[in-house]
Design brief:
The protein contains 2 helices and 4 strands. It is of the alpha+beta class and about 90 residues long.
Length: about 90
């Protein structure tokens, strides 16, 4: 059975300028409707955000024109997810 799915899931690790992680998280929450959830993390990156993008929306363009334009975002690392283990859900 071949189906077209309309959503792609991406996870983005976000590095913020020192002392601004909460401000960045709030800005992303307020300004980016594609956001599903955002978490504070330890390690090389300060935040982990989950976004749902409409099919056809370029993840690279979304990251560079939306996420990286939030003030105090210093770096990002993007993971595109494939839902191969729960076939009843959107596999993208």
């Amino acid at each position: 059975m071949s189906e077209e799915f309309s959503i792609r899931t991406i996870f983005v690790q976000i590095k913020c300028r020192l002392g601004t992680a909460y401000k960045v998280a709030e800005a992303i929450s307020d300004q980016v409707p594609e956001l599903s959830e955002i978490h504070s993390t330890s390690g090389s990156f300060d935040l982990l955000a989950k976004f749902y993008l409409e099919r056809g929306k370029d993840p690279g363009l979304f990251i560079s024109s939306v996420v990286q334009q939030i003030p105090d975002v210093v770096d990002t690392y993007t993971i595109i997810a494939f839902n191969a283990f729960t076939p009843h859900l959107d596999p993208a």
